[in-house]
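Ticket closed. Logging final result for Kinesin-like protein.
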Amino acid sequence: MAQRVAVSDGANKKTSRVRVVVRLRPYMGKQDEKDEGPCVRGLDSQNLEIINWRNATETVKYHFDVIHGEQTTQQEVFRSVKPILPHLLSGQNASVFAYGPTGAGKTHTMMGSSDQPGVIPRAVREVFKLVKAKNEDDRWDYSIGMSYLEIYNEKVLDLLSPSSLDLPIREDKDKNILIPGLTHTTISSFSDFDKHFVPASLNRTTASTKLNQRSSRSHAVLLLKVVRTQRTLPHRQQTGKLYLIDLAGSEDNRLTGNQGIRLKESGAINLSLFTLSKVVDSLNSGTAVRVPYRDSKLTRLLQDSLGGSAHSVMITNIAPEYKYYFHTFGALNFASKSKLIVNKPFTCETVAVLPVKRGREGHEAGGSGTEPQKKRQKEERKTEQDGFPSSAQFHSPSEPSVMDRLIALEKLMMNCGDKDKLSMLKDVAQSRKEIQELKEKQREFESKAMLFNREVGERSGVKQDPAFKNSMAPLQRKQSTATKAKQQAVVQPLQVAQLQPLQQLAVVRKQSVCVKKKKLSDQVEPPEGKENMLESCWESQLDTSVLEHSRQKILHILNSGSLKELKGLQQIGDKKAKLILGWREIHGHFRKLDDVVKVEGMMGKRFSSFIKANILSVMGK
Ligand SMILES: Nc1ncnc2c1ncn2[C@@H]1O[C@H](COP(=O)(O)OP(=O)(O)OP(=O)(O)O)[C@@H](O)[C@H]1O
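Final structure:
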């Protein structure tokens, strides 16, 4: 039996945060989807941007430890994992897990194929290499063992012993997570590992869905244990555990076409991933009384590898296609939260009273030591101290209302119950439809604006947030070839003209009512007595297409303008601009200009005066 030794090594107190790596896979879908362009793209080795779902002219930018673009090789991805592996040899835990939507490349990243091996085979090979190097000049003996399990429908199944039933997850007095009855096999070389791993992987539950022909329906966890024992008395023993986890993908059943058993699996997958996000939330908040690890088998198992004792790397896999958009967005938000978690590595050490058993087959029998629970729980809740910004700061949209909207959406997605989440997904689908309609309107409006600009020989310019400036073309959805074929009209990119200052718009009026520019601004506040006449007939004197154009311009500012842009409208001060932003937060977009009456204080005369002042102002300028 091994006796536990308390570890009080000062060096072990240093914190280690979860490294977050994002991998964008290449296009896998149809040509049509490729023609639309990506909804997300890397900007450099640490930053990426994704289209803002509420306003396609904006993008949301994230900062991560590493961004691996579409062309990244398996070897390059492994470079993000390699540095944590040496910790195993000194009794510390480590974990690597792949997270992301179904079909985004998690299994490719973790398992890979024979010609493109993924993180798991590479990590195992590296651990053997490290041990070999140590063995030559060390005072310790090393042994490596493996376990392999899947969590399917909230059941823990032993992949090395497929006939076994659901296994319990236990915790020892030192908060080590154990699975009594789980096969633990000692392995002596990489080929020995391969011999067990390859057939066991075939036992994993997979099925075909609309999004992925071979979709993992379970979370697969490979556990690699490195035990080192001192050659001389007192035969100290240290155990380092490495979890390599290929999570099942987060799913949208409308996209996967799941029904029956697939739907049930999907429910279990989404629920456990949802719990994982709640755990991340609690760990980040630093105030949670209870981190809900126990709410799912997955989080229970990850307890000592996330926010616990391990060095962790999370690889977030994302896909470029628009159909993955909301899952990609969710995955990025989840990933940016994980950056805030602080792990406290520690050395897990025991004293070997009896000689170490080196049997080929065994069962996980007990824990190896950890530091006291209270101290660790306290440490788990601490947030990152290393100067990285919070998730809210990572979202760097160009103005606060957008950021608030994103945070609100994120909170809703993360905090609502499973049932609510489904209705939330419906809402999101509805919003998506509305965005599409709005975009159509915007395109129509922009092509008109372009036409006007050409007529008056004005040059159009694109307003761009300096923080987002780069040499790349703006990220925007293009029409797929199929849609293009259907549509006759020439559509200008969304960015053009949409964010132009009002001044740059052309003024086109009916010849009969052509009023000089200066006079127009006078008309905003008409002389007494003439107000009624102007109230009733000013609109009828204007060219209808110009009128409509101006209305659309104002509507666009109302729907997507920042606080500053809203305050640039006539008769909108700070308070009104905030009320408009607030209305947008709750209700979304104004469908038509007249909807602005729904904003507090914009009824009756105020409304007509607001409309008139702004239309005339747009035209006058
Ligand atoms: N970086 C990549 N390069 C080339 N092909 C890739 C890459 N990433 C993924 N693929 C391919 O995309 C498809 C889906 O990938 P994969 O099965 O790894 O997704 P997944 O995220 O594990 O999905 P699920 O959660 O449904 O299991 C596979 O055919 C895979 O080979």
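The mean pLDDT is 70. No further action required.
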